[in-house]
Design goal:
Helix content is about 30%, strand content about 25%. The protein is built from three helices and six strands; from the N terminus they run H-E-E-E-H-E-H-E-E. Helix 2 packs across helix 3. It is globular, with a radius of gyration of 18 Å.
């Protein structure tokens, strides 16, 4: 039984290597002054799959969220789009999104902005309530994108 698990593990590792899954590209932006010092990447591209870190919509001048929930939603989605495009993908390659929101009454407000970022079908998505987000943000968005084969 143990030998069987080892063989399966080696076969899986071989498939990952053959598929290029060990090649990684780290997306690190430095829009805000302290971005390079933060202990995470904006996204990690492994093979054709981009794992998008949580983003919050901060004003570049104040490093705080704007007063308007719509403006904050636009900033966070612009940031997601920039990360996706930095990896050589498009928003239509996004397959899954998670939205964390401190006020679920903002669901329709967020959707009004969100839907303008996609041209075809929408990604699978969760809209989750959160008590607090960093820097007083209303939204934090993370997701996964998979490059379409040509």
């Amino acid at each position: 039984m143990r030998l069987q698990k080892v063989v399966i593990g080696v076969l899986f590792l071989g498939l990952c290597v053959a598929a290029g899954a060990t090649d990684r590209k780290y997306i690190v932006k430095s829009r805000a002054g302290d971005r390079k010092a933060l202990p995470f990447s904006e996204g990690v591209l492994v093979g054709n799959t981009l794992y998008i870190a949580g983003h919050i919509g901060l004003d570049a001048k104040t490093n705080m969220p704007p007063a308007s929930p719509e403006a904050e939603a636009r900033l966070v989605m612009d940031d997601i789009k920039q990360t996706v495009e930095s990896a050589g993908l498009s928003m239509d390659d996004v397959v899954s999104i998670q939205v964390f929101c401190t006020d679920l009454k903002l669901y329709d407000t967020f959707n009004g902005v969100y839907k303008t970022y996609f041209h075809g079908d929408y990604p699978a998505r969760a809209f989750l309530g959160a008590a607090n987000l960093l820097r007083g943000g209303r939204y934090e968005v993370m997701g996964i994108a998979v490059k379409r084969s040509q």
